[in-house]
Write a structure and sequence with these properties.
Layout (H helix, E strand, L loop, with lengths): L10 E6 L2 E6 L10 H16 L5 E6 L10 H5 L5 E2 L3 E2 L11 E5 L2 E3 L1 H8 L2 E5 L3 E3 L13 H8 L2 H10 L3 E2 H6 L5 E3 L4 H13 L3 H13 L8 H13 L2 H11 L10
Parallel strand pairs: 2-3, 3-6, 6-8, 7-9, 8-11
Antiparallel strand pairs: 1-2, 4-5, 9-10
Length: 260
Amino acid sequence: MVENRAADREVLTEVQGSVLVITLNRPEAKNAATAAMAEQMAEIIDDFEANDELFVAVITGAGQTFCSGMDLKAFVRGERPSIPGRGFLALTQRPPTKPVIAAVEGYALAGGFETMLACDLVVASEAAKFGIPEVKRGLAAAAGGLLELPKRTHRAVAMEMALTGDIYEAEFGYRHGFVNRLTAAGEALEEAIKLANAIAANGPLAVKASKRIITESPGWSEDEKFDKQAEITGPVFASEDAKEGATAFAEKRAPQWAGR
């Protein structure tokens, strides 16, 4: 993947080892999402999925805020920051098969909050603020918030957030389980990259399989769950990486993953 730091792009990328850092880049609008951002995100995510040297992505926002949702002025003009079949910012309906971490400073609201929920893990600073305020605008959190939030926290918490549209402090998210790690203000990205590197040190096939099972298994019946799990883990156990992992452990060295 070619890194893109052009200041006029609405989504920037930077490769740090095997970690891809994606930055939403409309700080003057609190990173409110546009159709152009969604199109750029679709391209970036496709490149990330296809690149065997990238294992984890971190999504953050410029200007000490994550994403305040869709650009309402653009919405009034008929523009939506979504891709058919892929969702808000090309992420909420069909996330990548590889792990994605949200690094949240400032506001993660509406579609921004739903983008955060589409990530597998969340690192937030104490300055982060969360909410799905769509009901206050006569809308509903249809980009995944109403579907995903009850999976990440208690039903009652999801119901309160969805029906009041209120904004909640970072500690609320941490206490109720949809934030994995809480940091001091300004340190969310640094901590998210540390977490990404800890994941990227592991076997990529095993990581992808583990994510897939955790994501898909809630829909499996009791009778089929171990068979379905075996379909996913079988190729992992038979892989070159599995042999390398065992050999590296025996030889007391770091494994060299091949991704096959």
